[in-house]
Amino acid sequence: MYHPLDEGWTLTLLRGDRPDAYAALDDGIPATVPGVVHTDLLAAGLMADPFPGAQEAELAWIGESDWRYRSTFSWHPTLDDARVDLVAEGLDTVATVRINDVVVLETVNQHRSYRTDLAAVLREGENSVEIDFRSPVRYAREREEVLGERPHSYAHPFNTIRKSACNFGWDWGPDFATAGIWRPLGLQEWAHVRIAAVRPVVDIVDGIPHLTAHVDLEWQGDDEEPVTVEIEVAGASARVEARPGQPVVIDLDVPDAEPWWPRGYGEARLYDLAVRVGDGVDEATRWSRAIGFRRVEVDIAPDEQGSPFSVRINGRDVYVHGANWIPDDVFVTRITPESLAASITDATDAGLNLLRVWGGGLYESDDFYDICDREGVLVWQDFLLACAAYSEDAELWDEFEAEAREAVTRLTSHPSLVIWNGGNENIWGYVDWKWRSRLNGRTWGEGYYRDLFPRIVAELAPTTFYSDGSPFSFSSYVHPNDDAHGTMHIWDVWNTRDYDGYRAYHPRFVSEFGFQGPPAFSTLESVVRDEPRSPFGREMLAHQKANEGNDKLERGLGAHLPAPGDYADWHWTMQLNQARAVSFGIEWFRSLSPLNRGWIVWQLNDCWPVVSWAAVDSHRHRKPLWYELRRVSAPRLLTIQPVLDGDGLRVTLHNDSDEAITGRVELRREGLDGTVLASLTLDLEVAARSAWTAPIDASLAVAGDPSREVLVAESSSGERGLHYFAEDTALALVDATEVHARAVADGYEVTLTAQTLVKDATLLVDLVDPAARVDSGMVTLTAGERHVFRVSGPAGIDPAAFARAGVLRSANDLVARALVR
Q1: What is the pTM of this model?
Q2: Are 161 and 139 in contact (CB under 8 A)?
Q3: Residue 170 pLDDT greater than 70, yes or no
Q4: Do 132 and 67 contact (CB within 8 A), yes or no?
């Protein structure tokens, strides 16, 4: 029987330099469990929304302070001779728990759950519970003094404490170090025996789905009476007798089950697995959840080009269209199953088939993985280490082992989780970031990546794949970020190079790359109100966490787009350039298929309003980047690229679908006004899940007037690729379109007709109403073509508002404005 402890809580400040406005904390304020200090201060009205302006430094005292949560509860036993455990699913982070003024639990790890027997302290009737939380910032500094300084990113030594690294601030997130009871807390009353964990290991062996169910039982006291353990799934069942001290392992063929497939490859079939101990009357002796059957392999065997990283599910190679995932809110207790579903829908609507849960964040809730299971979204799960060297002293080693064992045991039931990864950029950091001299022989985490984590995965989740790190080349004698081997991160493009630098690489698999852009204008306006508005205003820079981020945005324009003339143009230009940069990279990667086996863009989501690499901002506006992701993630992509190792152009169709394509590709070199200057038709035959490529004749590949011509490739199956002979700054683009807007039954329609080539037409509908959304963006039309944008939003808006200048944007209007200046 489970009794939640979620009512009657108060929060008080134990130690800290609080501002006068927070005097109410001296007497205590109401607290919500689950919750954290920041959300309680918000609910009490003591703290305003912390996101607008530049409040980060003003609120730093919260993370520097110690806090107490307190409540009382009434206890009356419901089972005879039962044991009662305090079950803490998540405490953030350094906590001392007292029941009736007796210390029953001390914790130092946000990423673990805790359970302790309350027999010695619990009494019938009224009981008190207090949980004191130490300042995570001060604790991390103290442990650094003991463990020794090791390289880490950003201001705080997050590598000394087992807490979400990005909670201390990152190059896309604020430093709001939290404390609190962040996952459910309660009492579990049980007798004789309980199910401690179920670990269903699935596989497909000789075409037959197979389950190996590991059932961990905990027995009360010296009880040695045997029990039966029964499992049932998809019409198959088995029963064994269990005794204390004996492992319970049940093997079961499940011939009536169908395989679980990722998106685009088949149905994500799930089956309810039920486990019952004894009569299963009490909740402690029942367990159930949906599982799926799949076989996971990743091909890393050396070949003539180096060594691949090819994800294979049920014997089929899967080309990965992925995105990196960060915690979906700065204050993670505000994340709900509904908000997770909305964010994962952003991924699936864009055609993505994998999410990488990044190592500076969290092991997500079961809700996250449940949704991925249902939607056929593959999950790559990092162990929670990122961008730092980590001590291997016992105090951290033991915590890493405990959290890793719990996480792998909990998540093994999810068929979507197919890859465990040792950590983010730590091996690369050791090799390339001058850590060795700073470490002076101290441990840095290699023992976790090369010993502890692979042992745990091999023991507890043997049918998933383990990678030592990301990036990683799967050899001790190859640079960990070598494009010819394994996985690589491409960050020089954002940091130091033009985005055409993506073509300098021939990557086997890209597990991180990206380019920044601002959020929707209304999202930015909700937090940035500098007067006058400026990319370099104080409040703007408080929402640009990357080092020299807005300088890099301007440098990243290169010759691609004209320098913006005003703040509104700056916003649109940077959004447009972000979308262009990422799609440029992905088109290049896909054109290298089958050498390239996938990519994972940084990043899908945001956790607060910020200039970042995200495709969807924290107010759930899909940025122009999102629309480009949807285009370049389509099952079939037609693209025009430079010839490999030579001069000239080639046309490539990457067919990431189960249907072969037979037809033709029409190539046209035409003027921006639509006049056809040269044309050629090529026969097209491309098998399922493969690529076709052909050289382009010089009569088409070379322009007579680069400023006024475009090369168009169109396939008979409906795909289009475009190649420009000059950057927009040298193209003769004119802002000449015909626009009509009207209200319709379910919103609004804006019809755009191009009188000449229109590049990347987009409606910034949030400028009309922040609640408005639009179905398409980054639309390029050749002369005479038409496109209908469908807008959802509040009723009563004048449709013409969606068609006015400044809402309807394109590359053409940027060029036209630059010519006027």
Answers
A1: 0.97
A2: yes
A3: yes
A4: yes
